[in-house]
Amino acid sequence: MKFLVIPAFEPDEKLIKLLEEVSALNLFQIIVVDDGSGDKFNNIFVEAEKYAIVLVHGVNKGKGAALKTAFTYIKGLNEDGIIVTADSDGQHTVSDIIKVSNSLRIDEAAITTGARYFTGKVPLKSKVGNTITKYIYFLVSGLFLNDTQCGLRAFSVSSIPFLLSINGDRYEYEMNMLLLAKKNGLSIKEVPIETVYIDDNSGSHFSPVKDAVKIYGEIFRFTLSSIAAFATDYAAYGLLSLLFAALPTSLMLVFSNVGARLISSTLNFNINKKFVFKHSEKGKGSLIRYFSLAAGILGLNTIILLGLNTLSGGNIYLLKLIAELACFAISFTAQKLFVFKMKNEKEKKSIARLPILKKEEEPCVIRNF
After folding, report:
1. How far apart are CA 83 and CA 74, in angstroms?
2. CA distance linking residue 185 with residue 174, whole number of Å
3. Are residue 193 and residue 236 in the same domain, yes or no?
4. Which residues, in sequence order, are CB contacts of 330 under 8 Å at separation 6+?
5. Backbone Cα Rg of the chain
């Protein structure tokens, strides 16, 4: 069985055109999620019911929440198969939907994502946004993807527990999916697709500021935390270098660097645990992992510092700055994937069993079977 999931918020006739074309192929069970579009758009969804199962959110919850609602519905069907997600605004062609769905096996632990290469007439905000995001993603994950924002993706039904465990209800959900895939044993592969923008992407509900903050929020918080820790580390390094000034240069660098890192890492651990990764694990597990990582980063940092001093000599404060910048990406990736793991396996299984909607929220309505 192949499922095509289309989250839709205030769609227009482009959604109906897509549904007509896909339905004519008789390849997919189509599921559309009306994400709180309101009465004004009832005629669109009544028409959509001719081709698809329509699930309805009483209020707008966001693209991530709409996808989770569809995944929960599919999970309840107890059918093996492949899930393809596509946008409702006409940016994904039927041929590309088929191409992405055919790129994945039912038993494959992977995410296939469409990859646009942004040739031709592309809105500037889309081109700039994708460029920034893909390099940030590379910095964080070590994996280079040409297109991290494409909503055309495919995964097996067996991946649903993972998909439901991912944080985020809006556009950040799709980025979190890519960030956590490797950690959960899912490979990521790209399939080239057409770059289609209609009316300069005027139908998009993506907010460049509000949604960007959600997508990049964790990275921003980590950067600010790192700046605070670096300022503390750098100040302590300067004071300790004066204290150990009588020692040979190599010893002075080692003692100053180690002492400064002990001070700054204590501050950094507490900020990252409480405010950056919002990690709730009790006990000393994350503390032990953090200082094990800190020891490794410190060793690497010190080797870089000594190496730069040996090769070039020069200002020891400038060398310290270069060494810190070199270790930044490694530190973020390791802390996210190793130190402050989102959930342990027991917690993941528990989350996968929870319903998507809270008791006080209006339940999802199935308009068509």
Report:
1. 9
2. 17
3. no
4. 297, 300
5. 24
Domain identity same for 45 and 144: yes
CA angle 112, 65, 68 (to 5 degrees): 55
Which amino acid is it at 216? Y
Q: What is the CATH number of the domain that holds 185?
A: 3.90.550.10
- Count of residues for the chain? 369
Does one domain contain both 185 and 245? Answer: no
Burial class (CB in 10 A: 0-12, 13-18, 19+), 283: exposed
Two tokens, residue 98: 């088929």
Same domain, residue pair 222 and 132: no
Residue 254: partners with Cβ closer than 8 Å, 6 or more residues away = 302, 306
Is 75 buried (19+), middle (13-18) or exposed (0-12) by CB count in 10 A? middle
Sign of CA dihedral 35, 174, 90, 127: positive
Amino acid at 49: E
DSSP-derived letter for residue 31 is E
- If asked whether residues 220 and 202 sit together in one domain, one would say no
Q: Please choose, from the candidates 70, 99, 103, the residue with its C-alpha nearest in 3D space to the C-alpha of residue 4.
A: 70
| Among 74, 355, 343, 351, CA closest to 184 | 343
The model's pLDDT over 36-86, given as tens digits with 9 standing for 90+, comes to 999 999 999 999 999 999 999 999 999 999 999 999 999 999 999 999 999
Domain match, 288 and 194 both: no
Q: State the DSSP string of 141-166.
A: HS---S-SS---EEEEGGGHHHHHHS
DSSP 363: P
Q: Note the pLDDT tens digit of each residue in 196-240.
A: 655 544 445 445 445 455 556 656 666 677 778 878 988 998 899
Residues 193 and 238 placed together within one structural domain of the fold:
no
Quick one: 93 and 225 in the same domain? no
- pTM summary value: 0.61
| pLDDT (tens digit per residue) in 273-318 | 776 666 666 656 777 877 788 788 878 878 888 888 787 766 777 7
Neighbours of 311 (CB within 10 A): 9
Give 200's DSSP letter: G
